[in-house]
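Hi X.,

You mentioned you wanted examples for the new student's onboarding notes, showing what a folding record looks like when two proteins sit in one file. Here is a clean example. The first protein comes first, with its sequence line followed by its structure tokens.
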Amino acid sequence: MKRALVTGGAGLIGSHLADLLRREGWRVRVLDNLEPQTHRHGRPAWVAEDTDFVQGDLCDRATIAAALAGVDIVFHQAAYGGYMPEITKYVHVNSLGTAQMLEVIREQNLPIKKIVVASSQAVYSEGAGRCPEHGLVFPPVRPVEQLRMGDWQVHCPVCGAVTTTAPTPEHAPIGGETVYGLTKVDQEKLVLLWGKQVGIPTVALRYSCTYGPRQSIFNPYTGVVAIFCTRLLNDLPPVLYEDGEQTRDFSFVEDVARANLLAAESDALDGLPVNVGSGRGVPIREVAEQISHALGISIAPQAEGEFRPGEMRHLTSDTERIRAAGYQPQVDLAAGIGRYLDWIRGQRDVRDYFSEAADVLRRKGIVQRVARA
């Protein structure tokens, strides 16, 4: 019987992955600190009572050493995410926590057979674009000065022409233009480099926007589908940054769990960063309108000229690499939103936490506004 550790295993992706592994006959241990921002009421009901559950901090050396004992495969999902203002916490949890886990495995010579780490599309500086003259280009992040002028377009780095979005392949430049994105670069590079050094197979899965049942209704900093739902259910408009026409690639959480299982059981992706997505970009405004229609709540989304520096304009994942290994998404966006709404309707006390959080982000400069003439 295969034995797995799922860090962050009470969260959105981790919990669905743990469920899938158990159905496939794996023995699963979950490590989660039950971060209050996400798990406001403690251990969620979807973590079964008979789960080998360890509540503890990834950054505590003794805790991670105990959680790794007797494990074959590590699915490292734990991370601090979203657009939050705590720089130190991002680096401490994502970068230091990952480094310490790898250090413990090496120092204790643990018989780990593979590590699959959760990376993110946030590692890219900007999505790929197609220039009328120069073809496929990889533009740098849009300058804050440009965004302050209300110019949301992505320009060709060679001639300055406006580009159209193109699927972003894994060989696109990475760097991370937010604190979160920077620490995800840290995580995937640490894991892939370490794996080569010690001879243990590793895979870094670059998730697109993941959504689905169990996405926290308490965290106002991450998860656009959840945030739009909680706003609408409180008779408030979804808030759009820029003009709402930026596009994202959405992945249903059960598809992402299947991608993890594939990465663990196949050697085709070993040593590689791998995009996980649908291969289809959807405007954020359209997502808000789909949710509004599905809920039967007619409140138009609101765009007031605010933007988040470092946020990419378009990101559609080029999924050729993972599809060649046998991956096929099974849940499209309309069906996935329907399933999320079925779940959220069963939750109690669905409040709007976004308004207060948005004020915090404005004060700290994480959200800025277009300059007025």
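Then the second protein repeats the pattern, sequence line and then tokens:
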Amino acid sequence: MKNNKKFDFFDKPENIKKLWIMLYALCGLLVVSDFFTHRHPHFGFDGFFGFYALLGFVSCAALILFSKLVGLVLKVKEDYYDN
């Protein structure tokens, strides 16, 4: 059996670079759009510039760290099914 792997869109380095540039541009546009958004803060701290971008980043980082901790607790030995 031959192992001919076809390279897809995400395997090419130039496409990966383009995707990173598009991601940075999209994030920049979303932060710039915060200038044109009228906020209705319910608490005092949620009215400052970039609050929701910061909240999203911190929430995502917390989810990643929490999943790493859960993975450590739920991890089983590699030979679990061999017994």
